[in-house]
Specification:
- The chain is mainly beta.
- It contains one helix and 25 strands.
- The chain has a ten-stranded antiparallel beta sheet, with no helix packed on it. An eight-stranded antiparallel beta sheet has the order 9-5-6-7-11-3-2-23, with no helix packed on it.
- Strand 17 and strand 18 form a beta hairpin.
Length: 278
């Protein structure tokens, strides 16, 4: 397991280990870091071992090529994706140094904000396979935010909305939406295959009065549930930790009719037809 210190995570507005459909994130073995700008700064120190350009899935809203940067951290090799690099192989970077510019990758869903993908391998491992990274431990505590399911739309995109609640006003550090027991959650509920917790938890987890899955340590197996905004079926909830003003993000793969200022009531219901994107 590789630990990321608070001094590293504090450089980014948001993060999530489980909010992705890709195998690299299975069991919390990768983390997405959201800086809030297009400037990509390094989360690790060490020389750039190599840079490889890869083709992206064809998406009308995204670039056709992404880049994999390998940085030698000594005992581990860091894998960084979604950056158009300004650095070259052999160049040494320190934590906080500029790596390049974030790219809008074809590996993203349309609702996904620009971010760095970070994972770690041992030097003897295959450094280019998508899966095989080590679990990531977080050197920060995350406050769980209680929520009654209501909020006002403050941001919209073609396939998402963000609400103004639950509020993290008055909180220091990172916060995340909490389940009924106050355990902070991360992942794609339930559109991505599994989720996680930002505090140790076991057994059934509930949100808004409905069981949403079963926790085992820091992982959650989602239950078969559907998310609704008023009477509109959503693809799911996008769950992450944030140290900037928090607000629940709802995903609508097929679009929506919500506008800023709309008052929304979110509910979660059992279903025999859950939406699973990966």
């Amino acid at each position: 397991m590789v630990s990321l210190a608070a001094a590293v995570l504090d450089r980014y507005e948001r993060f999530s280990r489980y909010n992705s459909p890709y195998p690299a994130h299975d069991a919390g073995c990768a983390i997405d870091l959201y800086p809030g700008t297009d400037r990509a700064v390094s989360p690790v120190s060490g020389p750039v071992r190599s840079i490889r350009t890869v083709r992206c899935p064809d998406r009308p809203y995204a670039v056709s090529e992404d880049h994999l940067l390998l940085l030698d951290c000594g005992s581990h090799i860091a894998r960084v994706l979604h950056v158009d690099p300004d650095v070259e192989a052999g160049e040494r970077v320190e934590i906080g140094d500029r790596l390049g510019t974030l790219v809008r990758s074809g590996f993203f869903g349309r609702w996904v904000d620009n971010h760095l993908h970070l994972g770690f391998r041992r030097p003897a491992q295959n450094l280019y396979r998508a899966s095989g990274s080590l679990p990531i431990d977080l050197g920060v505590s995350v406050t769980g935010l209680d929520w009654n399911g209501r909020g006002t739309v403050v941001e919209t995109g073609p396939t998402h909305i963000r609400l103004d609640s639950p509020s993290s006003r008055g909180q220091q550090g990172f916060a995340a939406l909490a389940d009924t027991d106050g355990v902070p959650l991360e992942g794609g509920l339930v559109h991505y295959g599994g989720g996680g917790t930002l505090a140790t938890a076991e057994g059934e987890r509930s949100l808004l009065g409905t069981p949403i899955g079963t926790a085992d340590g820091r992982e959650i197996s989602w239950a078969d549930v559907a998310v609704f905004a008023d009477n509109c079926r959503a693809t799911g909830l996008s769950l992450f930790a944030s140290q900037v003003p928090f607000g629940t993000k709802l995903v609508f793969q097929q679009g929506h009719d919500f506008e800023p200022g709309d008052e929304v009531a979110v509910s979660i219901e059992p279903t025999t037809d859950p939406i699973q994107l990966g």
